[in-house]
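Figure S7 source data.
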Amino acid sequence: MAKLEIHQFPCLADNYGFLIHDADADVTACIDTPEVEPIRAALRRKGWKLTHILNTHWHPDHAGGNVALRDETGCQIIGPANEQDKIPSLERSVGEGDVVEFGPHRAVVLDVPGHTAGHIAYWFEDDGVAFVGDTLFALGCGRLFEGTPAQMWTSLGKLMKLPTETRVYCAHEYTQANARFALTVDPNNAELVARAKEIDDKRAAGEPTVPTTIGLELRTNPFLRAEAASLQETLRMVGRDPVEVFAETRKRKDSF
Ligand code: ZN
Ligand code: FE
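Tokens for the predicted zinc ion complex:
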């Protein structure tokens, strides 16, 4: 099986665009369509022809470029079944457990509601890669616009069970701000402290902090650490239900 090539590039103020490509099968997908021109430019530069769009959720910085790109390329648009009405350009709608075939590669669809009601993630198990949209960020998670803390905790729980080495492509470069918040709720986590410093260095050098990995997030992302003693102690919520701890962490971040 040819390697799944991944090309990452900035869009809008802080989104990332991702093109994935398999050379043998000559297929190219765009994960979400935050902004048309940078996507066009990336396709030109790589010499790839767009065959698929894989949407994670309906927000305009994720599906806003669908129609223009489809009209130019005739690509197939695949996205969340539970947001079909909000993404009228979908040609195929998918949900939990569905498999999206991409040349020889396969993505398993995970329903991860919370940020939006129908948000999905694409897990390329054999390639060790997950595209998680606005559900999980490096050191953060999406705001709960259309879901409850319990729903989001369940969704994050699905991602937490992926193999630790899975490379996680999140849709925004929010990491530096997320790190500043994370340090307020988990200040005694030595690996988080060290990571925050690395993130500052990377951003100062103009480098992306995406992708991350499930393992790194499990050890340092406060939104995945509702069961961790160090976080519970800082929040004075020792022994409390992880949903409550997660909800409190999310609430604090919303007003940080
Ligand atoms: Zn969003
Ligand atoms: Fe977004």
